Amino acid sequence: MSVSEEREPASPPVPDWPEESAHRLQRLEELRALGLAPYPNRYERTHTLAQVVASWGGKSADELGAELAAVRVAGRVLLKRPMGKASFLTIGDGEAKLQLFLRKDQLGEKSYRLLELVDRGDFVGAAGTIMRTRMGELSVQVNELSFLSKALLPPPEKWHGLEDVETRYRRRYLDLIANPDVRNTFLARAALVAAIRRFMEEHGYVEVETPMMQPIPGGALARPFVTHHNALGMDLFLRIAPELYLKRLTVGGLERVYEINRNFRNEGIDSHHNPEFTMLEFYTAYSDCRDVMSFTEELLVAAARRVLGDAPAVYEGREMSFVPPFGRVRMADAIGAGLAKDAEAGFTAEWLEDPAALEAYVRSASFRGACSRRKVDASAYAPLSHGKRIAQLFEDFVQPELWHPTFVVDHPVEISPLSKRRSDDPRVADRFELFAAGMEIANGFSELNDPLEQRERFLEQSRAREAGDAEAHVMDDDYIRALGHGMPPTGGCGVGIDRLVMLVTGSRSIRDVILFPHMRPEEGRQGTGHRGAEETK
Q1: Per-residue pLDDT, 17
Q2: pLDDT single digits (tens) 373-388
Q3: Residues 176 and 94 sit within 8 Å (Cβ to Cβ)
Q4: Residue 280 belongs to what H/E stretch?
Q5: Nearest one of 138, 89, 136, 131 to 112, comparing CA atoms
Q6: Which residues belong to CATH 3.30.930.10 in the chain?
Q7: Please, what CATH class does the domain formed by 20-149 belong to?
């Protein structure tokens, strides 16, 4: 039977695949009937498509005709234009596109009929010479066509316009095929992470790996994910932060240590939060909060320059400068200035140092009015402790206004259980957070290395946990034991990689910079796991 003859299409191989898959499956069978392997093991190419464009894209038709450069290229079929005894295919490999010019008299009857079995989305290989068509388009005049992979599912309707957000996140492979800017975002992410590693290594830091499953969730105030280890017969927690393990290494004599780590927090999902995310965390012996701030600034400037060059970042249509020095402001001063912008708020900055006065203020009509104007829930302040009220005031009235990178220092000790107090003002922690575009980008402090005070801080957190605070830190006796062996003065910092990538690529959602963000299962599906919980042994 000729490959051009019609036959009844086979049934789609998977029930919810589209009708077109049946026709593609038929062509798959016809390829095999011709003795062709539709999924060969390899194809030897001489050039990527980008290399072809770079090497010959600037040459004229006459120059190409004189050179007759031979190439072997491969890519996915983006466009197919049959025109009788000549046909054109446009292929792409993610980096570039190239046209293939196929003539029946050059390929021969059998190879030319192979084109009838080629669909958009298939992978093909082509050997031939570089030329320009009459329209001036750079092309390969093909003398050998090879089939490399049959796509049984059709590509998106538009190669440059897959717009459904849920489909883009859920099926990132289609997003990468259809939207070139997405590929560029993740190439930028890879470049940024590589720049961070290079910077850390150039400054004498040792990269390490710490446990992702931990018996005690520590290093941050967050809800953990819980799993169970059958062989050990114990529950474990997915890491919410590597901090306490990295500081154990500082105790052990690794004076400059860092980890680019995956963390997991069982909390909400929004444009700035994903339950699985990436951080850089580093620790430096004989340093304090101010040393770490300066180093963090230098690091982020270098990483941003690696992606942006000398251009500013553009986020939500607004420029952002990574040019040092970054701004620095005390948390109390920032809150005072933020509420002072609302003349009817009736706020006095001194109340931040008086728990009773601040409690009275957050229950006042003036405060409720200020919250209403900012679309903030005033009732959320009533059950909070003094330190948490200060932090919430900052989050609601200051943080959204911090656009260019700004260090905020002097946090309440209560919300900083792993930080030293300032030596000149024990009421506040020797800590900073870095904000940009209203997002927290980094968090660092002078590490608390007094084992007795650290134990007391953990006990305070345990009492808060018993009172209903599910995010309070739990006691870690082994970490206290480690500190008991002595840890030098140490400064530490965590940097949110995903949010930093958002800023330098202009991505509005954290899901845009995570290749496979978490999604609810599609309706009627249970996810992609192969075994249910009852089958796991």
Answers
A1: 86
A2: 999 999 999 999 999 9
A3: yes
A4: strand 276-285
A5: 89
A6: 190-326+404-513
A7: mainly beta
